[in-house]
Write a structure and sequence with these properties.
The chain is mainly α. Helices cover 77% and strands 0% of the residues. Helix 1 (10-33) runs antiparallel to helix 2 (38-63) and helix 2 packs antiparallel against helix 3 (70-127).
């Protein structure tokens, strides 16, 4: 008799799946309104949509498909495992993209800092103020004369 039933009752699975899908949809909507780099938004949107499919198929695997029906049961669970693998791959891509974005931002900040230091040194030179290697005067750094 147990072999004719799904793994868990639909009454247990559907509310959990609905809640997970609601949270995922809310995250997708919130993310579209949040300022972020386009590459990050694209990766995370794809991840969110794939998560919705994964949640749906997992709910079907637990609450609808009977383990006695070997072919549909196997197809559903192999698809879930494949989607989870793709989600892990997307998480790795998102991580690599974040590292790339961070490196680009650090480079941009360093370039701005170097430009500002040159401007600061030029201003100090115009005013006849002695500066250290960062372009700061001795009064600004607290150094004694």
């Amino acid at each position: 008799m147990l072999a004719q039933d799904p793994i868990l009752p639909v009454v247990v699975i559907l509310p959990m799946a609905a809640m997970a899908m609601l949270v995922t949809c809310g995250h997708l909507v919130w993310m579209q309104r949040t300022p972020m780099p386009p590459t990050r938004r694209r990766i995370r949107t794809v991840t969110g949509v794939l998560s919705l499919f994964t949640i749906t198929l997992t709910a079907i695997g637990f609450g609808v498909v009977n383990p006695a029906d070997a072919r549909p049961f196997l197809l559903v669970w192999l698809t879930v495992i494949g989607l989870l693998g793709i989600l892990v791959l997307l998480a790795g891509i998102d991580m690599a993209n974040n590292v790339r974005l961070h490196a680009a931002e650090r480079k941009h900040i360093r370039e701005q800092l170097a430009r500002l230091q040159v401007e600061l040194k030029a201003l100090a030179h115009q005013r006849g103020i002695r500066t250290n290697r960062f372009g700061l005067s001795r009064e600004e750094t607290g150094e004694e004369r």
